[in-house]
């Protein structure tokens, strides 16, 4: 019997290269992490860039997994996947081949500088809230905020690039 763990919400994003192919490849890599069990994936949404707006449209999705990994081990595994996809950090909010963020881990709040939980900007980002509500309309963050009560002001979604019905995870 597989060990049960914590539910983790992961944000995926890309705006360089073949973004949909990149996100699908990242999902396959996430699913292959030892100690991670895929639960659900949203549609891939197109979204406005957030914070640094002079760049291409982003493609964004939310994946939900169960994991037996410790939070920092999960973060490091996701950072390894970003490196596989040649993620560079030239400046804050720069264009990127792949961005993987831990948005929330069931029951865990953290003010660790390496991993703040829930993600402190999640509540204002349309590219987080919209796909999260697609998967779990009653989602409750670890800090007690209800996703449907959030009012995103940046990174608003502009349409669906690939329906979740056409996604595999």
How would you briefly describe this protein structure?
Helix content is 22%, strand content 28%. It is built from three helices and eight strands; from the N terminus they run βαβββαβββαβ.
Cα-to-Cα separation, first versus last residue: 21 Å
* Percent helix: 10-25%
Main β sheet profile: 6 strands, antiparallel
Strand fraction band? 25-35%
Question: What structural class do you assign from the helix and strand content?
Answer: alpha+beta
Radius of gyration from the alpha-carbon trace, in angstroms: 15 Å
Tell me, rounded to a whole number, the average pLDDT.
93
The tally of beta strands, per DSSP, is 8
Shape: globular
Oligomer type: single chain
Give start-end ranges of low-pLDDT stretches: none
* Total number of helices: 3
Helix/strand order: EHEEEHEEEHE
Give your account of this protein's structure.
With 169 residues, the protein is of the alpha+beta class. The chain has three helices and eight strands, in the order βαβββαβββαβ. Strands 1, 2, 3, 4, 5 and 8 form a six-stranded antiparallel sheet that branches. A two-stranded antiparallel sheet has the order 6-7. Strand 6 and strand 7 (115-117) form a beta hairpin. The radius of gyration is 15 Å and the shape is globular. It starts with 5 loop residues before the first strand and ends in a 7-residue tail after the last strand.
């Amino acid at each position: 019997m597989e060990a049960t763990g914590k539910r983790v919400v992961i944000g995926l994003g890309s705006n360089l290269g073949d973004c949909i192919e990149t996100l699908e490849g990242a999902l396959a890599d996430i699913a292959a992490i030892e100690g991670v069990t895929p639960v659900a994936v949203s549609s891939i949404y197109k979204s406005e860039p957030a914070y640094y707006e002079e760049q291409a449209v982003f493609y964004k999705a939310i994946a939900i997994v169960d994991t037996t990994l410790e939070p920092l081990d999960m973060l490091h595994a996701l950072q390894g996947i970003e490196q596989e996809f040649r993620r560079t950090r030239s400046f804050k909010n720069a264009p990127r081949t792949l961005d993987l963020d831990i948005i929330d881990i069931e029951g865990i709040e953290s003010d660790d500088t390496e991993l703040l939980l829930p993600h402190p900007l999640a509540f204002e980002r349309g590219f987080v809230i919209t796909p999260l509500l697609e998967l779990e309309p009653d989602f409750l963050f670890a800090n007690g905020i209800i996703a449907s009560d959030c009012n995103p002001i940046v990174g608003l979604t502009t349409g669906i690039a690939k329906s979740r019905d056409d996604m595999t995870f």
